[in-house]
Amino acid sequence: MNKIDIMDSGHISRDDAAFPTLVKIDNDELICGYTAKGKGPDALGGTDWSRSVDGGATWIHEGTLLPRTGNPVSVNSLRLSQVSGGTILAYGGRDYLEGDGESRSFGKDLKNEQVFCSSVDLGKTWSEASVIPADLSLKFEISNPIVDAGNGTWLAPAATLPDSQRLGERVVVF
Fold it and tell me: Are 51 and 59 in contact (CB under 8 A)?
């Protein structure tokens, strides 16, 4: 039977962050992406990334991958994965909010889109966000990263959010 041994613990961010994902670069190097300054699960910030070169014992904040913006207010929460050839992807949702964006209520987002950024230099720099076209009028929640199907195809999962009584009614893959 497999087991998990906790050898140590520490902090990557103490900035009210949420939804971390990890990518292993080599033996001791890791990158962690997370929603920063976002009031926890409300995800009202942007996506930052940090790097560890000692197997996760210590972390250095590298920067903001996709920032929160104002006028209109947009927030995002991206998940990291690595695909064939070493490219690292950051995939998730970007929501445009009403008002000052200091809080959110279900169904009040002005717009919701699926986006991804990529890094071809092991997470040192990132592309601008690319919107994944979805000719659907539904809003989506993205809680998992893109998966490389191994044949040149990337699978980007999402769950539909048609209304507050039907959360995750359908799971779709772009």
Answer: yes
Cβ contact 118:86 at 8 Å: no
- How many separate domains does the chain show? 1
How confident is the prediction along the chain (174 residues), in pLDDT tens digits per residue?
888 888 777 778 877 788 899 999 988 999 999 998 766 667 888 999 999 999 998 999 999 999 999 988 999 999 999 999 999 999 999 988 888 877 776 666 678 899 999 999 999 999 999 999 876 667 788 889 999 998 889 999 988 877 777 777 888 888
Please spell the DSSP secondary structure of 5-39, one letter per residue. Answer: -------S--SS-EEEEEEE-SSS-EEEEEEESS-
CATH number at residue 86: 2.115.10.20
Q: Please give the Cα distance from 93 to 132 (Å, whole number).
A: 10
3-state class (DSSP) for residue 156: coil
Q: Is 159 within a domain?
A: no
Which residue range(s) make up the domain with 114? 18-137
